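Need residues for this backbone.
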C-alpha cells in the first residue's frame, strides 16, 4: 500500500489553566501529553496563568478557539471541565462551536471524548441537562413574577422624580438638555419625556383659555 494514503496525525491543542501565577500547570500538561502520545497525536500547548475560571475570555483559551477556527487543530483537550468552561452553558456553547468546526473535545477526568461514540453520547446528555436547567430557571422566574403581580408588587425600574419647573427654568436660561439632565442626575431621554409632557400640557391649557 502506498504511503500517500496514510492520514497525517491529528493535531491536538492541550489547554491548561491555573488560577494564580504561583501555581504550575505542569501536572495538567503531563497527563495531557501522555494521553496525546498514546493516541499518536501532534501536540500544541496553550496555558493560562493566573486566570480565574469565572472568566469566559482568557488569552490562551482565546488562542485555542482561534486555532480551531483557523482549522489548525483537530482536537481540544484539557484535564477537567472547570479548567476549560465557567459553566455548563459555557461548555455546551463552546463544544457546539467546536463541533461545527469539525474539532473534537477531550476532557480526561470527566471521560468526555467526542472522538468516540460513547464520548459524543455523554456530551449530548450534558447538553440536555443544561437545557433542562435553563428551562427550570426560566419557569422559576416566571412563577416569581406571577406571584409578585398577584401580591400587588409593582415590577420594573423605580420611577424617577423630576422637578419639571426647575428643568424648564434651566433650559430657558440657555443650558443644554444634556447639561440639565446631568445636573439633575437623570437620563437625557427621561428629562426630554418630562419636559415634552409639560409643554404639551401648557399648550393644551393655553388653547382652552383662548377658545
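Answer:
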Amino acid at each position: 500500500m502506498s504511503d500517500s494514503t496514510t492520514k497525517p496525525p491529528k493535531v491536538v491543542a492541550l489547554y491548561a489553566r491555573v488560577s494564580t501565577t504561583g501555581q504550575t500547570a505542569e501536572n495538567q500538561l503531563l497527563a495531557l501529553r501522555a494521553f496525546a502520545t498514546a493516541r499518536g497525536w501532534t501536540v500544541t500547548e496553550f496555558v493560562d496563568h493566573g486566570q480565574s475560571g469565572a472568566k469566559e475570555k482568557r488569552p490562551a483559551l482565546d488562542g485555542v478557539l482561534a486555532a480551531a477556527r483557523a482549522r489548525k487543530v483537530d482536537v481540544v483537550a484539557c484535564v477537567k471541565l472547570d479548567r476549560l468552561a465557567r459553566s455548563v452553558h459555557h461548555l455546551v456553547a463552546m463544544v457546539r462551536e467546536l463541533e461545527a468546526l469539525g474539532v473534537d473535545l477531550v476532557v480526561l477526568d470527566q471521560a468526555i471524548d467526542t472522538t468516540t461514540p460513547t464520548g459524543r453520547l455523554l456530551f449530548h446528555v450534558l447538553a440536555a441537562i443544561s437545557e433542562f436547567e435553563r428551562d427550570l430557571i426560566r419557569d422559576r422566574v416566571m412563577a416569581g413574577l406571577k406571584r409578585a403581580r398577584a401580591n400587588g408588587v409593582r415590577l420594573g425600574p423605580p420611577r424617577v422624580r423630576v422637578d419639571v419647573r426647575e428643568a424648564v427654568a434651566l433650559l430657558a436660561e440657555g443650558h443644554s438638555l444634556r447639561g440639565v439632565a446631568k445636573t439633575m442626575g437623570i437620563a437625557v431621554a427621561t428629562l426630554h419625556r418630562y419636559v415634552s409632557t409639560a409643554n404639551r400640557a401648557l399648550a393644551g391649557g393655553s388653547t382652552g383659555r383662548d377658545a
